[in-house]
Design goal:
The chain has 263 residues and is an alpha+beta fold. It has helices spanning 2-9, 31-37, 40-43, 97-115, 153-174, 200-204, 220-229, 247-262; strands spanning 50-59, 63-65, 73-82, 86-87, 122-131, 137-138, 141-150, 177-178, 187-189, 210-218. The longest helix is centred in the middle third of the chain and has 22 residues, at 153-174. The protein is elongated, with a radius of gyration of 23 Å.
Length: 263
């Protein structure tokens, strides 16, 4: 909004069409694609270039970018593994989805270590597992939440297929059922990140070139003190409860920088 306000105030000094998009659900990797699928480029002009950015725990005033991939693609799976409930003193007539889920998690860990080349970036994570409500009853089902990340479409497709294969194979073997990221010295190089955004869908859907960059938000004095004593790695990062961006200088400078990039 600040960038739009600045450029609107200076409209006599530049030519072109500024398109401001406010994208939902970027962390879940479906917001940008949903906008495209909903006819985004039937409603607005095809852009010459698409710019995206994200705040990051770096020194305030710094912009970080690099050539090539910046953020990986991400997919999220919600997996429900069905069993057969009953009392735990009769395991012979039950199908335990907790045990099967544990076996699935172990199998998922082998996808990257045993099915992906070491030089290929790939992540498979099961970060949530829930099932049952008490210690002596085998539940009817267990739920897993799994995410995968990669840079290359071919690798991503293999990861998706491997996750589904691992889940289906375990469930069939166990008798279960299942399946579900112009400023002088302030510009620094930043390699690829393991975080994910689906911003690129806005550009690839219309064949436009695009740039995604990070901008620093940590107070310069805080950053300098940490740099002197070697504790930069202790500065709270995004999504941490201690993450504390310097709001005003960050917002003001980023608005000006982003306005420059539009021009």
């Amino acid at each position: 909004m600040a960038t739009a306000s600045l450029l609107h105030a200076a409209w006599k000094t530049w030519l072109g069409t500024l398109i401001c998009l406010f994208q939902p659900a970027e962390k879940f990797a479906y917001g940008a694609q949903a906008m495209v699928d909903d006819g985004l480029y039937d409603k607005i002009p095809i852009p010459d270039v698409v710019l995206g950015q994200h705040v990051l725990a770096m020194k305030e005033g710094v912009i970080a970018l690099d050539g090539g991939p910046m953020l990986p693609a991400v997919d999220l799976f919600e997996i429900r593994i069905f069993g057969k409930s009953g009392h735990n003193f009769r395991p012979d007539i039950c199908v335990d989805p907790i045990l099967k889920s544990a076996n699935v998690v172990v199998k998922l860990q082998g996808i990257v270590t045993k099915e992906t080349k070491p030089e290929d970036f790939a992540i498979v994570t099961c970060a949530s597992i829930n099932g049952g409500t008490t210690a002596n009853i085998v539940p009817d089902f267990a739920d897993l939440r799994v995410s995968i990340r990669s840079y290359e479409p071919e690798i991503h497709q293999r990861l998706v297929a491997a996750v589904e294969r691992a889940v289906r194979a375990e469930c069939e073997a166990s008798g279960c059922l299942s399946f579900k990221e112009a400023f002088g010295d302030n510009v620094i190089e930043k390699g690829p990140s393991g975080a994910s955004e689906d911003f690129s869908a806005l550009a690839t859907a219309c064949g436009a070139p695009y740039v995604f960059y990070m901008w620093g938000c940590i107070d310069k004095e805080t950053w300098s003190r940490a740099e002197k004593v070697g504790t930069l790695n202790q500065i709270p990062q995004n999504h941490s409860a201690g993450f504390a961006p310097a709001i005003r200088p960050t917002l003001e400078r980023e608005a000006y920088k982003h306005s420059q990039l539009q021009l």
